[in-house]
Amino acid sequence: MTVPLAYYLVLSAVLFSIGVAAFLIRRNIITVFLAIELMLNAVNLAFVTFAHQWRIVNGQIFVFFVMVVAAAEAAVGLAIIITIFRARNTLNIDQVDLMKL
Amino acid sequence: MIAIEQGAQQVAQGYAVHQIYQIYRILPEVVLTITGVLIMLIEPLLPSRASRKPLGGLAIVGTLAALIASLWQMSLPAGTAYHGEVRTDAFSVFFHVLILGIVLVTLLTAVDVFLPETENTAEFYALVVFGAVGMCLMTSAVELLLVFISLEISSISTYILAGFRRHTGKSTEAALKYFLLGSFATAFFLFGIALLFGSTGTTTFAGIAAGLPGTATPAFAVIAVAMILVGLGFKVSAAPFHVWTPDVYEGAPSPVVGLMSTAPKAAAFAVLLRIAFEVCPSLHVRWMPLIWLLAAISMTVGNLGALRQQNVKRMLAYSSIAHAGYLLVAFTALSREGIAAAIFYTAAYAVTNVGIFAVVSHYGGYEEKLLSIADYRGMARHFPVLGGALAFFLLSLIGIPFTAGFFGKFYVFSASLSAGVLWLSILGLVNSGIASFYYLRLVTAVYSQPASEAPAVRRPGWALQLALLLTVTATLVLGIFPGRTLAMARAGAATYAPSSAITGSLKAAGGVSGAPLPVTPLHAAGQ
User: Is the model's pLDDT at A55 over the cut of 60?
Assistant: First the structure.
């Protein structure tokens, strides 16, 4: 028995939505950053599904590039988070509020 | 016989194509990359006490070389390279020249602003140059994978640049906000790409454009376009995706703000134009209402927000939101004229804004002390050149004749009026009136009686004088002789918007009769 492709797309959409919700709700900067990674991986799942559906390898190649970019973003993002922690001694996003919206 | 002739023709064409090496199509990017790598390699060899200004000079020379390379690309016939990944044509060359000009002015400003004891200035120059690679690639990419990667090259560089003054609380906070919200928007953009790939089975612009009208899953395509609009709407800071803008502009170093309020925006608008008019013209009934909404909200939120700002950088942040709104108005024209107006407006806004931030950077200095409107009182008395240039740029943002802003607004609103989108044009004109209030408040402050002694601001050095000369000249030329630039913008628009195709689909939707396009409910997409 094979799992229908639509299920993978639904899973991808659900993961993406969880990522969006976590990004908006969670207050710890690291958790917020993880939410973004979750969203990117949800997209990867969608790419693999579509690549399988169309029998085209482009979608899978796309996933490799997304992973590379996510790694680069993680390197820069964690560096920024470290400078924030050094400057403010907190990782709570509500306390990073020198500038009012 | 005919077959033989065709074969001979194909051979001849193949020969002609092979004469143009593929690398010529990405020559400016190659030059910029080499420049950036050279800066990174030379920096550790210099003694730690030595001035890094020569490396800034190297970055400027490299950017100039890339500028010449992209101008030279005009002599190439338009075409694609690397399996249809990049295309050089009038459109890409126009944006290359614009972006490289902005980068040049930013580098000149940075050379002027950085103090001898400023740390990591070589990395700053390298990052600006690497970011320029991404922005330039965005404007010549015709395949979604390359669009995504180049968008990230430009974004990741600007994330780091926003936090360049890493020992200050505000700069790191700006970097964090820009990074988190930027990655969030990128994820939406990426999901949009995935859905476009899913509905057509390809990621090239031409393939998607051909596949979209007959796609089996039009709902995916509609959601894809909406998500791509969210992602790019963030990059161009269009409301309601603008919340990061005031904070990031306030916290990031002023030369960086000058760069990121213009160059990545110009690149993102180039991508948005290509996606709207080259990839998804068949879906214009879907994205047009969204663009109307973005334009209307951006103009209103930007201008009303700017009214109550006391910090000059925050005010300019809200003004940049408003200008993104004016620019989106040009999209509604759905014609080659509208695209040309949008391209022209991008250039007009960019040359003006990068000039303003050159003045703000110098006046505030590396420590960013003088930033409130009250600090600008009597600026023209103490520093006539700086004050005069600032007032001139502000007048251009208002849209006074003989400045770039005037023709920018003129073309945008005449394009939207000819498309019959009357309410948006009126809203835009009312907004321009509101905008003149806060711009003029700063102009009057600059020219009013100084309240106190002259603040401790250095005399402008050669680099800043050159940057101001370039931006003032560009603003004046666009304001007095706009014809040549508009002709280039039209040539750029013509590369992918065959006017017959767009007006044809417009007629089908009933837009030419003067009535706004019908807003079809979204659930009809599944049919």
Answer: yes
B7 token code pair: 């074969």
Helices B284-307 + B218-235 axis angle, to 10: 20
Chain B residues lying within 8 Å of A81, measured CB to CB: 176
Q: pLDDT tens across B266-282, in order?
A: 999 999 999 999 999 88
Long-range pairs for A88-93: beta carbons < 8 A, 24 or more residues apart: A88/B169, A88/B172, A88/B173, A91/A28, A91/A29, A91/A30, A92/A27, A92/A28, A92/A29, A93/A27, A93/A28, A93/A29, A93/A32
The set of residues, in sequence order, having a beta carbon less than 8 Å from that of B289 and lying 6+ positions away, is B517, B519
Residue-averaged pLDDT of chain B: 89
Q: How much is the ipTM here?
A: 0.96
Nearest residue to B392 via CA among B338, B447, B347, B434: B447
Which is nearest to B147 in space by CA: B241, B268, B30?
Answer: B268
DSSP code at position B87: E
Residue B505 has pLDDT above 70, yes or no: no
A95 touches chain B (CB under 8 A): no
Read off the tokens for B381: 């008395």
d(CA B509, CA B524): 15
This prediction has a pTM of 0.91
B176 to chain A: closest CA residue = A80
Q: Which residues of A touch B173 (CB under 8 A)?
A: 84, 88, 96, 98-99
Q: Is A1 on the interface with B (CB under 8 A)?
A: no
Q: Is B178 in contact with B252 (CB distance < 8 Å)?
A: yes
The reply to whether A99 touches chain B by the CB within 8 Å rule is: yes
Q: Which residues of B touch A63 (CB under 8 A)?
A: none
> Within an 8 Å CB–CB cutoff, is residue B145 touching chain A?
yes
Measured between beta carbons, which residues in chain A are less than 8 angstroms from residue B156?
A: 72-73, 76
Write the residue in B160, B203, B243 that is nearest to A76 by C-beta: B160
Rounded CA-CA distance A63/A61 in Å is 5
Q: What are phi and psi of B210, to 5 degrees?
A: -75, -35
Domain ranges of chain A: 5-95
Cβ-based neighbours of B244, under 8 Å, separated by 6 or more: B177, B178, B181, B182, B234, B237
Residues 39-68 of A with CB under 8 A from B: 39-40, 42-43, 46-47, 49-50, 53-54, 56, 58-59, 61-62, 65-66
CB B122 within 8 A of CB B57: no
The tokens describing B44, both together, are 């550790």
Q: Which residue has the higher pLDDT, B9 or B42?
A: B42
Chain-chain contact of A56 with B201 (C-beta, under 8 angstroms): yes
Residues in A closer than 8 angstroms to B174, CB to CB, are: 99
CB contact under 8 A, A33 and B180: yes
What's the mean per-residue pLDDT of chain A? 93
B187/A96 Cβ within 8 A: no
Range A5-95 classified under CATH 1.10.287.3510: yes
